[in-house]
Amino acid sequence: MDVVRVKIVNRSLAPGDRLPSIRRFARSMSASPSTVAEVYARLEAEGVIRARRGSGFYVTGADLPPMALAEMGEPRERTVDPFWVSRLSLDAGSSDLMPGCGWLPASWMPNGAIRKGLRALSRGEAGLLTDYGSTRGALALRRLLIGRFAEEGLPATVSQVMLTGSGTQAIDLICRLLLRPGDTVLLDDPCYFNFQALLRAHQVRIVSVPFTPEGPDADGFERVVSAEKPRLYITNSALHNPTGATVSPQSAYRVLSVAASHGMTIVEDDIFADFEPALSPRLAVLDGLNRVIRIGSFSKTLSASIRCGYIAARQDWIESLTDLQIATCFSGPSPLAASIITGILTGGSYRRHMDELRQRLASAREETAKRLAPLGLVPWVMPRGGFYLWCRLPEGLDSSSIAQRCMEDKVILAPGNVFSVSQTAGGFLRFNVAHMADKRIYMALEKAMTGPARPV
Amino acid sequence: MDVVRVKIVNRSLAPGDRLPSIRRFARSMSASPSTVAEVYARLEAEGVIRARRGSGFYVTGADLPPMALAEMGEPRERTVDPFWVSRLSLDAGSSDLMPGCGWLPASWMPNGAIRKGLRALSRGEAGLLTDYGSTRGALALRRLLIGRFAEEGLPATVSQVMLTGSGTQAIDLICRLLLRPGDTVLLDDPCYFNFQALLRAHQVRIVSVPFTPEGPDADGFERVVSAEKPRLYITNSALHNPTGATVSPQSAYRVLSVAASHGMTIVEDDIFADFEPALSPRLAVLDGLNRVIRIGSFSKTLSASIRCGYIAARQDWIESLTDLQIATCFSGPSPLAASIITGILTGGSYRRHMDELRQRLASAREETAKRLAPLGLVPWVMPRGGFYLWCRLPEGLDSSSIAQRCMEDKVILAPGNVFSVSQTAGGFLRFNVAHMADKRIYMALEKAMTGPARPV
Questions:
Q1: Which of B346, B373, B408 is the last residue of a domain?
Q2: ipTM more than 0.90?
Q3: CA of A219: how far to CAs of A204, A233, A235, A263, B389, in Å?
Q4: Quick one: pLDDT at residue A13?
Q5: Which residues in chain B are closer than 8 Å to A154, comparing Cβ atoms?
Q6: What's the whole-model pTM score?
Q7: Total number of domains in chain B
Q8: Which of B111, B166, B290 sits opposite A126 (nearest CB)?
Q9: How far is A59 from chain B (nearest CA, A)?
Q10: Is residue B200 assigned to a domain?
Q11: Burial class (CB in 10 A: 0-12, 13-18, 19+), A70
Q12: Are residues A167 and A37 located together in one domain of the fold?
């Protein structure tokens, strides 16, 4: 019965298609005709198929009953790949625990300020509610951004900034502008898994450099850039995803020098910037937006539902990126979104909110490290800020197997190899300390780590 | 002085760069050194450059004074290409008149319902305000969509629908999935200008078929599909952009047959659907989402600021498109946006709002046609609904020249050739009847159409 349902769900049998006759189906499945007749009768009762007199059984196109869908192989059977964590976390049920996800719980976000912003909008100007955005995005928010850049020592004009639908979409636009299939792109190892997924969509060749607690391995970086001549290097600033490490000033300087010698462009993803206790070296600031492109968004600090990101770069690149955004999304991002964000950032409560958030994360980080210690899970570095603890498993344990087992207990982990181009992080797990309170997580971990070895 | 400013704006001279010495610059510009010295002194007074003792003049990176920017060549000097209307309309000043744009004035949109939706959200669940969307987008809105499809006679399951950031982004995702550089894609001639811009971003070869008042020219369609074997055909449903024509049932059937014989996939853009007085043939409905992919959005009927579009297609394609959306935008579109839209569509006022809108457009269409007639501007067809009147100019006049002249009077038109792959629509203009009330438009048109011939 499942076979028929799967065929229907996969559209191998489309609405209106005629099912094989009972006899033929029975023969192909090596089952008795009476069994198949029973199956067809049950599916007909469910409304999934319908008998037409003298003609046979046809697929109706009605939704399969929820229980039937639950019985079928779910997407959770997929291989642990760079989409594994995304799909599971984004589509998680309300009873799933999500220590592997990359965002804060809704209750930690500045909900009061958002509600206030929505109320203000509801009384605001009609154009804001319904018009398309200007091609570069709301001027007020771009001015605000260059004001913040100026505080960091990065001079930029509003013509060097454009708003986008999200941070990921910002990087995607840059890739579309600068890359051709077959180009080489450099990533840290480990790095944010969606960088890999995105680059695969661009059909480029990915090479990697090991990431150390101070930044990309210095000699390794020089070697791989000389040998492979990547067009682009994509990295985090502030607090590395997944390790939580911070790049040292020496490392930042070396990266820029090597990039300059080899004509390599750098994309620096700044989305965790405000979680730092104090400003660390920024490639974009040292470089002055010449060779470095800065991208960011407000998804981690304000809201992932009010979608808005930005790109800061050389003006001629911004011109071309704007045209590309018009062609592929028509207009800049939601003026409504930009308005709410601008309101919150200028509202006066933002600084205090971030102070509290940093403190809350610091406590959660300490607490989480303490509770993971008895299980033998040890942080690779203790981050200065941010969400993550990148923890090494005891010898002999594989994080993908542990993650698969924990799924059965409805705990969604982030196994190391989804972050690793070279697949050398099988001994690591990335934990989001804001989602580590529930004791069921530790129980599931212990069970998965100490149970008998099973084939994956 | 402008030369230096332009160089600075274009980043040929970047912050920190040293300007050429006064003597050298004077020589290169064939000007006297004292003139250049005066120019440098003025720029230094403006804060744009700074003198360093014994070293020369350096670019500071400060914003250019607004007046200086206004004096410089604006983007309006660009060639009339598929981006011409987009950039001008999206970045229009509040005193510009926009008969060439493709959306309704803010005052015509359902603002009351949107404000109500924002207020409801401000009291709503925290997760909705800050969480990422699920990978396929809010289930409630997807269910609502398949309910509407069912009313049209198109059976679909929620697994065949995904939400996207916009209608344009929906088509872009489909292009990314199905096309490789060098593939051939078929468009109507004329067609929506952003289809061209989008396909150029995908580096595909574009071929076209003339559009008649009943749909694509029947013999021409068969010929070009046989000869060129396009991978994809992208078209409108309901009310063609820019002509306003409606496809006949015979034309729809022929298009599908030819597509089927040659294995060509069709993308049917449904965004103007609700502006029809009654349902016209839909390729997606006749085909049942087998070979046809339907895309749509709410930008034209509800809001272009609350960004949300959708794709309805075979389930296996939806699975792949979802992965592509995760890789390039991370997560589905804003749950906040989906929530407001769902609220409006189920709120009870939507049907009445659309009835009123259709009547308002019908009056505006009649009125506009009457006022254009004395100028010799005649509609190619009189549309059954929608925004547009596609009007032929009197013999000998070129719409691109007329559009360039009208820009000087702050009237932004949509000249025919931005819509035409074969560049054979130079005698046409597309008017948006919702933006045709102001008499200054007719005055500018008359002036541009009757003035002495000038070189473009």
A1: B346
A2: no
A3: 24, 16, 17, 18, 65
A4: 62
A5: none
A6: 0.81
A7: 3
A8: B111
A9: 11
A10: yes
A11: exposed
A12: no
